[in-house]
Structures
1.
Amino acid sequence: MTDQVRVEGKRVVLRDPRPEDVEARVRWETVEIEWQNWDWPCEGPVEALTEARVKKYAASIAASIAQPLPSPRKRLWVERIGGPLLGWVNQYHYDPEARVTWVGIDICESAYWNQGLGTEALLLWIDYLVESLDLECLRLGTWSGNQRMVCCAEKCGFVVDKVNSGSREVRGKRYDGLEFVLNQEAVSKRRGGA
Ligand SMILES: CC(C)(COP(=O)(O)OP(=O)(O)OC[C@H]1O[C@@H](n2cnc3c(N)ncnc32)[C@H](O)[C@@H]1OP(=O)(O)O)[C@@H](O)C(=O)NCCC(=O)NCCS
């Protein structure tokens, strides 16, 4: 069994999944779902979650939690220290030649938004990845209607690198797709613990 990863901050901890996390993960698909309107919102009717679908979903999450975890991790759960599980951070499209990876974050518990917890979690995640991978830069994608994410990314040192004007339609309105970069200088600073 691989060692457990646990990255402690002041108010949140990033950690590996546990079997008991399934309950929270199902809650984020059934009861606490507002985050989905901001993450990667899409048009069209949402398929109803029947009891059978929830059970199947819970079983598939439990199975994925039981899988051996890659090192470094592609995803860690975000937990409020002394409080509930809040969401996750992830990385994807890692390109070792270009020395770049994309990162994402979802704080699914909406009662915990706008308290600086997402920024703390994303900074912990950036530091974990910068220590674990040979990175020149990190990238993050969002859309202009998600000002919480824009603000959180900027507080972490990301700057807008590419604007795809009007490329996102959300609830009948056009928004820009935004690509942020945490450039080499910022990554070096974080590597140095700045
Ligand atoms: C986006 C997300 C990760 C940010 O985490 P968070 O803990 O809420 O963020 P923080 O509190 O660290 O920072 C949010 C900032 O946005 C600001 N903000 C909130 N609403 C805003 C608005 N409408 N316009 C401008 N700024 C706004 C807050 O004031 C805060 O800045 P401050 O600390 O300077 O006051 C979290 O809200 C979330 O997961 N939301 C749902 C899913 C999602 O959007 N995921 C990202 C997909 S790309």
2.
Amino acid sequence: MLLDNQVALVTGAASGIGRASAQLFAREGAKVVVADIRETKSLATVESIRASGNEAVFVRTDVGKMEEVKRLVDETVSNFGRLDVLYSNAAAYAMGSTTAVSEIDWDRTLDVCLKATWMLAHHAVPVMLDQGKGVIIVTGSNHAIRGYPDYAAYQAAKGGLLALTRSLAADYAPAIRANAILPGGVITDLWDEPTDEDLEIASRTTPLKRIGTPEEIAQVALFFASEMSSYVTGTHLLVDGGFNSMHLLEGHLHDPNARKYL
Ligand SMILES: NC(=O)c1ccc[n+]([C@@H]2O[C@H](COP(=O)([O-])OP(=O)(O)OC[C@H]3O[C@@H](n4cnc5c(N)ncnc54)[C@H](O)[C@@H]3O)[C@@H](O)[C@H]2O)c1
């Protein structure tokens, strides 16, 4: 049990990577706080964890709002007495180039995808420092390290997360470790149902010849959450089936079907 007697808070845990991580952390012994804006799906995550004999609670939270984030951290501590692993994973974004995206959409994307991690850490770090230890994990994206058309706000947010991860690592070491996961394409609720053609393009553009699963990202989150990564902080890991190691072939950049896997 890699997280025995620990308390983990996972945002965006109603589905996808967050749900798989919450479930895996619980199987490894953690008590889990499931945070999301979607109630029905979050309660299903909680039920699945309880059904396997582990502890979880749902705290409905819009991670783009400071007062809700503060309440989330407070309720985590009042429910379970401590906070060992903060996994800032939720995201929602507006597509568009710099000129196409509105100020409202820019602000909301930055709030949910970037400022949320600062707000979560702002409230969680003092709890972790009091305990003498803690771990922060952030879900970035390969958009953090590459530029693609029509993702101005999302890419700015994801790039900022890498810098914030380094700040958290520098400011709070040695008590707290902070690392980011940069997933490649993973089939989750973030996407519309992929077509056979989508999957074929993903297999052509990815050395491992397929799109990833939420569980494969969760395994890396467990590595960062646990003592398995005790000498790892302030860095990131691409979990992309090798996508970023391969030079894109002519034509892929202009193929709208390919773009969503980039
Ligand atoms: N799926 C991919 O291909 C992919 C690739 C790279 C990065 N990511 C990142 O992975 C993370 C998880 O996404 P996913 O793919 O599992 O998608 P998902 O849609 O399954 O999960 C995202 C969750 O965030 C929640 N959420 C949205 N806005 C919120 C808010 N304001 N407050 C609280 N919760 C909110 C959603 O309800 C949802 O449950 C995100 O940070 C995303 O940017 C995903």
3.
Amino acid sequence: METTFEPSLDVKEFRRALSLFPTGVAILTTVSEQGVPVGLTCNSFSSVSLDPPLVSWGLRKESRAASSFRNGKGFAINILSGAQQGLSGRFASSSIADKFEGVAWEAGLNGMPVLSHCAATFECTTFAVHDAGDHWLFLGQVRRFEHEISHHPLVFCKGAYMLLSKALLESSQQSPERVAEVVEARRLIHGALLELACRNATEEDFQALDAKLLEMERFAEAGAPQPRVEAGVEFFRLIGAATHNEIVATLANSLADVMRQNLTDAAASPPRSALVPLRREILKHLQLRDRAAAEEALGRYLALLVEPNVQPVQIPTPPLAA
Ligand SMILES: Cc1cc2nc3c(=O)[nH]c(=O)nc-3n(C[C@H](O)[C@H](O)[C@H](O)COP(=O)(O)O)c2cc1C
């Protein structure tokens, strides 16, 4: 259990701690001053009061949608079902100009877009907007709602969609062929992670990776299985964070959940100290922004995870710059 005190609050760790609270996923919609539909993915939705029926959610002040929600008469809350994960990614993207293109919706109260096939929808008038740090806190009074109890909601936890993690895990445990597919998927996704991290990682990301490697090297010596597994998963989670692409990092987090489960199942196996220099090598190539070399080292790393008896070719590596 890690304890963090407020004066030294580390924003990344704060977000991670908050991510342990599973939430649903909603698309918040309204219309802009020009009458154009506006929306974003949101997991800060919460129920507040039954009488009057009030709900709340938080909106990042820097969101492109901030003025539309602040100046609008109200908003619709579209609770996503497990089958609508694609919409969550679409409405969380800053680079899609028209998020509603190809999306089925109807104009509800005050013209607010109500998305089709959701688990539930709540149409609200704005009850209050409070200044809340880097977010605006909205309170909405529910004027109309619909729900479909047979739908399973999409659930978000630890930075990943739970349905996706669950599906991947079940799939990976079905047959030896499926295990091979998971290994291949992991190689591809991790290859994409390395490519993006080579392009986007900051010095701070490298420092976090370096600190994590030091921690892992201690566990490799001590041989404690569970912290070793956690540290291995954490290494790839940090590479995911270093991509600065929330969508790819979320996919990688789902794969990391599968990896954690598979590695925990195999935790009785002895420490694989040969993985330690390979992780160092991956980090070194990332720092040099050498994608091909990083991917090649990743290939040897994954081969070793799957075939622990195969020893990697030892390439002498110069010490990392301080
Ligand atoms: C699962 C998930 C939950 C999110 N929850 C919120 C939220 O509660 N409030 C918020 O302002 N942004 C939240 N975001 C981020 C916004 O969706 C994202 O910043 C926004 O859609 C970017 O588009 P914009 O540039 O049009 O604002 C969330 C993203 C995801 C993937």
